[in-house]
From TrEMBL:
Catalytic activity of the protein: adenosylcob(III)inamide + ATP = adenosylcob(III)inamide phosphate + ADP + H(+); adenosylcob(III)inamide phosphate + GTP + H(+) = adenosylcob(III)inamide-GDP + diphosphate; adenosylcob(III)inamide + GTP = adenosylcob(III)inamide phosphate + GDP + H(+)
Protein name listed in UniProt: Adenosylcobinamide kinase
PANTHER family (UniProt xref): BIFUNCTIONAL ADENOSYLCOBALAMIN BIOSYNTHESIS PROTEIN COBU (PTHR34848:SF1), PTHR34848
Active-site annotation: H53
Lineage: Bacteria, Bacillati, Bacillota, Bacilli, Bacillales
Amino acid sequence: MRIILITGGVRSGKSAFAERLAQQQKQEHGGTLVYLATGQAWDEEMQNRIHLHRERRENNWETVEEPYELQAAIQTMAEADTHEAASESSLVLLDTFSGWIANVLMQMPEDQLSKSAIRQACQQQVISCVSAMRSLDRTWIVVSDEVGLGGVALSKLGRAFQDITGFANQIVAQYADEVYLVVAGIPMKIKGSEARDK
């Protein structure tokens, strides 16, 4: 089991880098590629983004779309692994962890978002998802927005998203073998053997 976290700002090139890294892993180690997509087509602009992501992917991906029940999707993979010979050469690209968090938060009434019990419940869902990932003998590439470089959001929803996504990124990074920050299309390795040598 390996976890690779790729974070960066909106339109930083993190998804394209994640896909290239996944294809490189497949060329080197074989195995299967699963694209676990959390994107929701809320409007025409999001529909276009999702379409561009689909067009960019090669045909050798199995796509699983799950905007809300991420832990259940991971559990389904775990059950499939018990029937088939999955290995660490099997790779799952989760794009994006932060998108899943946004989907979960958008289902909640806004006046509930500032309550600590709600945030703790969301954080527990994050921990459960990461634990489920770690239980599978697969390589995970997790893409998530970097929310720590901007100002504090003005809305309750925005602040809840920043807080929970920041927490989620720290949890994934804690268990990740490698962490990359993508800026202007350039990936910088900030955790992993080569990062330590610098």
